[in-house]
Amino acid sequence: EAGVAQSPRYKIIEKRQSVAFWCNPISGHATLYWYQQILGQGPKLLIQFQNNGVVDDSQLPKDRFSAERLKGVDSTLKIQPAKLEDSAVYLCASSFTGGAVGYTFGSGTRLTVV
Amino acid sequence: GQQLNQSPQSMFIQEGEDVSMNCTSSSIFNTWLWYKQDPGEGPVLLIALYKAGELTSNGRLTAQFGITRKDSFLNISASIPSDVGIYFCAGQSYNTDKLIFGTGTRLQVFP
Questions:
Q1: What percent of chain A has pLDDT above 90?
Q2: pLDDT at A99
Q3: In the 8-state DSSP scheme, what is residue A71?
């Protein structure tokens, strides 16, 4: 089966600019996650969707980050305005039924804010 | 946010050697997982553990779910060059899909 698709792979922006990342999960996977991985650290959950509803967004900095999953398939994560500390890899993952064992991660989008 | 403590932070070993790394938490988890991440890729699941005291193997990899449910261990036997990468532990609590990841152990294998 095709994996989790993410784009772009790399993005460089100036601080205070806006940026958007796109994720296409594995077909049929109802649960979608966005994780932020700062260099030298493990991934941290930003938001979890179940179909097109938000399950957990407690770690999402809502003053600048937003995410949506219209129609319960593709998802976009947006940052506006970006700060230097947002430089990180943004990983999307999906699972069929939920639960950690079913997670499949995408390759991520590496964001550099200068 | 919470992160689990992994040690060692990095390891430089010779091909054929065995490797051990561990992960500790201040919280109890119901599931422990071990992932490997290659450069430019997302984490890939290696082993999942569901029960305190459980010992599970996947080829040359063996992992254990600590009795206290606050720690886990990963061993790699007879390391090979393709074992190079960053190894992450992750814990999952009951009734949530959220994973709490460790700080990672970077493994380098020299021929």
A1: 85
A2: 66
A3: G
Q: What pLDDT does residue B1 have? A: 62
Q: Nearest residue on chain B to A31, judged by CA atoms? A: B97
Average pLDDT, chain A: 94
Chain A nearest C-alpha distance from B22 (Å): 15
DSSP label of B103: -
Enumerate the residues of chain B whose CB falls inside 8 A of the CB of residue A59: 1
Q: Which of B33, B102, B103 sits opposite A100 (nearest CB)?
A: B33
Token pair in block for residue A47:
């938001």
Residue from the list A4, A41, A45 with its beta carbon closest to the beta carbon of B99: A45
pLDDT tens for A17-72 read 999 999 999 999 999 999 999 999 999 999 999 998 999 999 999 999 999 998 88
Residue B48 and residue A100: Cβ atoms within 8 Å? yes
**What was the pLDDT predicted at A98?**
63
Q: Is A113 exposed, middle or buried (0-12, 13-18, 19+ CB in 10 A)?
A: buried
Strand partners, A10: A110
Low-confidence ranges of chain B (pLDDT < 50): none
Q: Residue B91, class by beta-carbon neighbours within 10 Å (0-12 exposed, 13-18 middle, 19+ buried)? A: buried
| Residue A92 to residue B41: CA distance in whole angstroms | 11
- Closest CB from A4, A43, A95 relative to B101: A43
